[in-house]
Amino acid sequence: MSESTFMGVPREKIDWSPRIDYDKCNYCMECVKFCPHNVYEVRENNDKKLIVKNPNNCVVFCRACGKTCGVDALTFPNKGKTIKRIKEIRKEMEGNE
Amino acid sequence: MSKSYAILPCNGLDKCAGCIAKELAIKLTETTDSQIICPVLYRTVDARYNKIVEEKPLLVIDGCGTRCASKIASEKSLKVDQKINISDEAKSNSITIENNLRLGKDELKLVDIITDKLTKEKEKVKKVSSTVFPQIFEYEIYKKDKFTFKVPKEGFLFNENDCWVYVVGNKARIGVADYVQHSLSDIIFFEPPETGSKIDQFGEAGTIESGKAVFEIVCPVSGTITAVNENLIESPELINEDPYGKGWIAEIELSDYESDKELLYYFDKYFEILKRKVDEFHV
Fold first, then answer.
1. What ipTM describes this predicted complex?
2. Domain with B108 in it
3. Which end of chain A is less crowded, N or C, counting CB atoms within 10 A of the terminal residue's CB?
4. What is the pTM of this model?
5. Closest Cα in chain A to B261
6. How many whole angstroms separate alpha carbon B6 and alpha carbon B35?
């Protein structure tokens, strides 16, 4: 079971999850070990051994896995824009009620 | 004037940030009466360094986000006085660290900047809090295995990132929920937000750290930081002991609370979220 809404907004409408910079990532997998939400998936046989499998499992505004990254390969969307978008969607939803 | 540290540096000698950590440690022993603890030897023969760590305040120098030096400090239950992360310092000084293991001009400049920062006496500005915040609350409890998660029933609002806010007039106190301290276990270091700085809702209001992880305090409200809990610098364990009271993080003068409130939860909803989190994730 994963989170389905954030502040009343359907989770899939909010674009918030880590972006992996594959030029930097050294596949130490510290982020995978850290995140309890099953956001990442390890694919040993692929070129990209690590992918963001379940972006909507990521807790909105959480950047904690980024702190485990020794090579600074993880980034997140712009927070201000995300907040604005969430508020807009909430307004739209109110309007539809 | 000169400070004296027991220095526990990163020993990542196959990475540039690690080499900078080593250079910084050496530089500090030259400019201050500090002593280096070799992390490798410390791990195998700690008797060699036990006296130094008892006598001097501990300075931990991490090279990167893997935080090996911090993790060793936590393993050995050491009290951390000061902490430096080379990669973070590089970023905040707009210096790009190269991959070269021999240090270049920029890397040496970074060493100088950090040395200055560490050796200069900090001006102590006493902040007096004019607002009185209550200290004792009534809690609802959720139990799981040997853990007991507390949530205060009244007066607090929460964000989904497990940080709380308690508002009195146009001032607020922020902190982390009990869930955070249980998840991190023993908190060994508190990096406070800067007093006087402006902060957005969901911005970073400092970090707290255990041997397990670094937790970014996701600010529930927007405004200006007017005070930080100085007691946490000496005793970060207060967050473990009393996350809603003595373990408060910072005080904020609110700038847009009415709007911030739209994205916060009262007790009822947060308690539901907490229960779900505990059931799904807390192990």
1. 0.81
2. 6-119
3. C
4. 0.81
5. A7
6. 5
